[in-house]
Automatic annotation (TrEMBL), chain A:
Keywords: Cell membrane, Membrane, Transmembrane, Transmembrane helix, Transport. The keyword Chaperone does not apply. It comes from Paracoccus onchidii. This is Iron ABC transporter permease. It is a multi-pass membrane protein. InterPro entries: ABC_BtuC-like, ABC_transptr_permease_BtuC.
From TrEMBL, chain B:
Residues 3-239 form the ABC transporter domain. This is Heme ABC transporter ATP-binding protein. It comes from the Bacteria. InterPro entries: AAA+_ATPase, ABC_transporter-like_ATP-bd, P-loop_NTPase. NCBIfam families: PRK13548.1 (NF010068).
């Protein structure tokens, strides 16, 4: 008969190598993304069927003009933009959480998206006052670059305000984020008030957050910025792991903390700026995706960041799918779908970690 | 084979603590920094590990810490902080593995488990770090620090351990265990600088003691020479009597002999 001994050592959990699980997750999540992409291409308000197009292509038959337009000019750019935006939202969330050492940091919650949005709105409304030479130089990039600058500036301000001597105060970060968001919102409001009718039409979709306006030109503008930020995550993971022990310890184990912070802030600003510029404010992807992955495969940023990109892309495509079919043939703004799914998860994290955010 | 710090000054508000401190330490021996609260021990350690900006010059094995790149320093010295924070639910093994990052030891993957066994945490690999007790967390961080500079002497010279109150949260058995690890590291040729609160453990294990008072070094030398009634009583502001342990020449203090001045 088993007998509890006084002073017996409690059973140790088995050593699970979460690193290997997380690496395997790369493959699974990539597979999921492929499946979701196919579903997304096959679904839409028009009668175009992916199967019909594929069989026609394989048999060498001509594809009808309608099918070609629906596939190549509507569904495909929307798919690619969904992948890009979903990946960038999740990556910017994960990087920001690593930088602030807190699972509640998310560009949408702490004013970075609002800052990026303000940059974009400024570019739309005040763009006419910019020197024409500059406009021809940056062209299509005016709005994304302005959004990037807005996001970059607000991340820097937020970090300066909430981090003292290498430690980030959660309360200060969230409160400063609210203040930043409110300020950016107020200035955006003034600009909207100043805007003319044509600009107002351009601005309307910011508040909604949608992939409906996806075009190849937008994909071409956002693609390089988002690609760059995802590439940067390959170099940030190790450093963000060290940063979890605080700036001083990260420095002691040989991490160039200043360079890491600059890189992380640039990555967040690039990813958020590009996503906001092409799709408006889509919330909660950046907080839900990294959190789910941390639960499943641990917080190691070396695998978390890439996995976040993959899962973020899949989840946003699924949300987009929901937004397209739920009130078809109309489009529900995708921001509504992500908020309905994401807000409860956010509340759940808050409840689980209440001690961490007590003021 | 030394660490030299010259004229170290750190500005804290309007005060300078430490205020023009010189410190020499030899590899192969344990150097302890002691002194009352607020005397500048921890700030001095932070200054010589390049954690806070300071005036003066610190050389570790010929490397000027102000100009040497971080990775180069990380391969030569490891630092155990007083308060260990950790964001996100890493396991003990994942935390200790972070000591492998600096890569000065050929990335031997068995080191983390060996270091955990060394600090008495064998089998804790799969536990969540945040679920450990304060003392266990401190020992897990010590394991991480040991992994970072595993060999006390490398091809390019001795390695250094900088420890800020390494035994503060530990019970007496683990205090002795950790001090034993540290002493063996020094005997094997490594350098050790430790900020200490416990004067008896200091007397027992340190080869060299620097006693700080109000941002300056009040006395420095071997413990039996500098840990005297007069010096300690003056520095700590209370009456202390130093005796000699029955078995050996090391000095010791008993609290019942102490009284507020």
């Amino acid at each position: 008969m088993a007998r509890a001994e006084i002073g017996a050592i409690p059973a140790m959990p088995p050593i699970v190598d979460r690193h290997r699980t997380a690496r395997r997750a790369h493959v699974w999540l990539a597979g999921l993304l492929v499946v979701v992409c196919i579903c997304s291409l096959a679904t839409g308000a028009s009668g175009t069927s992916l199967w019909r197009v594929l069989t026609a292509l394989l048999a060498g038959d001509p594809v009808s003009v309608t099918d070609r337009v629906v596939m190549l000019d509507i569904r495909l750019p929307r798919l690619v933009m969904g992948v890009l935006v979903g990946a960038s939202l999740a990556v910017s969330g994960a990087v920001m959480q690593g930088l602030f050492r807190n699972p509640l940091a998310d560009p949408g919650l702490v004013g970075v998206s609002a800052g990026a949005g303000l940059g974009a709105i400024m570019a739309i409304v005040l763009g006419a006052f910019l020197p024409s030479a500059l406009i021809t130089l940056v062209g299509n990039w005016t709005v994304p670059v302005a959004a990037f600058l807005g996001g970059w500036l607000s991340t820097i301000i937020l970090y300066r305000v909430s981090t003292r001597a290498g430690r980030t105060s959660v309360a200060t970060m969230l409160l400063a984020g609210i203040a930043l968001g409110a300020l950016a919102g107020a200035v955006s409001g003034i600009l909207v008030y100043m805007a003319d009718d044509r600009q107002l039409r351009d601005l309307t979709f910011w508040g909604l957050g949608s992939l409906a306006g996806a075009t190849w030109s937008k994909v071409l503008v956002a693609g390089p910025m988002i690609g760059l930020s995802i590439l940067a995550t390959l170099y940030l993971g190790r450093g963000l792991n060290g940063l979890a022990m605080g700036e001083a310890t990260a420095h002691h184990i040989g991490i160039n903390v200043q360079r890491l912070k600059n890189g992380a802030i640039m990555t967040v600003a690039l990813a958020t700026g590009a996503a906001v510029a092409v799709s408006g404010g889509i919330g909660f992807v950046g907080i839900v995706v990294p959190h789910l992955l941390r639960l499943a495969t641990g917080p190691d940023h070396e695998t978390l960041l890439l996995n976040s990109a993959l899962l973020g892309a899949s989840l946003l495509l699924i949300a987009d799918l929901v937004s397209r079919v739920i009130i078809a043939p109309a489009d529900l703004p995708i921001g509504i779908v992500t908020a309905v799914l994401g807000a409860p998860v956010f509340l759940w994290i808050l409840l689980r970690r209440r001690g961490l955010v007590d003021l | 084979m030394t660490l030299t710090a010259r004229d170290i000054r750190v500005s804290l508000g309007r005060k300078q603590v430490p205020h023009g401190v010189d410190l020499n330490a030899e590899a192969g021996s344990v150097t302890a920094i002691v002194g009352p609260n607020g005397s500048g021990k921890t700030t001095l350690l932070r200054a010589i590990t390049d954690e806070v900006p300071c005036l003066g010059q610190v050389m570790v094995e010929g490397l000027d810490i102000a100009t040497a790149p971080g990775w180069q320093l990380a391969a030569r010295r490891a630092v155990l902080p007083q308060m260990a924070t950790l964001a996100f639910p890493f396991t003990v093994l994942e935390v200790v593995r972070m000591g492998l990052m600096s890569g000065g030891h050929g990335q031997d993957p068995s080191l983390p488990s060996r270091a955990l066994a060394e600090v008495g945490l064998a089998g804790y690999e799969g536990r969540f770090f945040q679920e450990l007790s304060g003392g266990e967390q401190q020992r897990a961080h010590l394991a991480r620090v040991l992994v970072q500079v595993w060999a006390p002497v490398g091809q390019d010279g001795p390695r250094w351990l900088f420890l800020d109150e390494p035994v503060a949260a530990l019970d007496i058995a683990h205090q002795l265990e950790v001090m034993d690890i540290v002493t063996r590291y020094a005997r094997a040729g490594g350098g050790v600088i430790a900020v200490m609160h416990d004067l008896n453990l200091t007397a027992l294990h340190a080869d060299h003691v620097a006693i700080m008072s109000a941002g300056r070094i009040a006395a420095a030398g071997p413990p039996d020479l500098v840990m005297t009634d007069a010096t300690l009583s003056k520095v700590y502001g209370c009456k202390l009597r130093v005796g000699v342990a029955p078995e050996g020449p090391r000095p010791f203090l008993l609290p019942h002999c102490a009284a507020l001045a």
